[in-house]
Amino acid sequence: MKFKTMNIAFLVIILAVGIIMLGCGDSKQEANKKLKNDQLSKSIGKKDLGQAKKLPAKAPDKEKFDPKKKLAAKEIRFDAKTAGKIQPATSTGKRPIVKRGENAREFEAKTYDGKMVRLSDYKGKYILIDFWATWCGPCVREMPYMEKLAAKYKDNKDLVILGVSLDKSDKPIPGFLKKYNIEYPQVYDGRGWSNEVAALYGITSIPMTVLIGPDFNIIGTGFRGPKLIESIDAVLNRKDS
Description:
This protein has five helices and nine strands; from the N terminus they run αβββββαβαβαββα. By secondary structure, the chain is α/β, with parallel strands linked by helices. The strands form three sheets. Strands 7-6-5-8-9 form a five-stranded mixed sheet, covered by helices on one side. A two-stranded antiparallel ribbon has the order 1-2. Strands 3-4 form a two-stranded antiparallel sheet.
């Protein structure tokens, strides 16, 4: 019995020593790891640490392309202080079409045959601006009405008609105008839908007409077909009455 008790005590002592040795081993490993880290830090040196601080920050991830997201268009802004000049705006978006009662937007532009036209030169008269193009089917269908209107008021000094062509080439313009006996000035810059005057007036579809009064305010927009001639007749007859 005494011998058995001694054996148990001996086993307990051996187990305790093993646990102590295991703990020491873990502590020794931690100490060695810390020592290596300290030595590595010292080996880098101040110069290397300085360069490490200068490393650029990680660039942000590129924005994922969203096909539903529309690209912002470059707006054209009218500034009364720089009348006749068209300047790119700082904001984005497209300028809305002129509305009734709004001031006319001044411009100076060349015609397809190289002459200069300034809108304010006709201030005090009724001004009809017709936005069109030779490739535009609806515009072609409107030309007989424009022809009748121009012929009817050819000698009337109170009405001025200006065309703004959204063609990219001036080659078809002379023959087209000759076909419909159109002689009033035709503004043209070869930019198509990017035409500066069209952008200034917010034109997004053609044909489109804009009627300006003698006070340089917008009377209305979108006169077409028989209504075009009727509307001009009504305005000029009202003036005479």
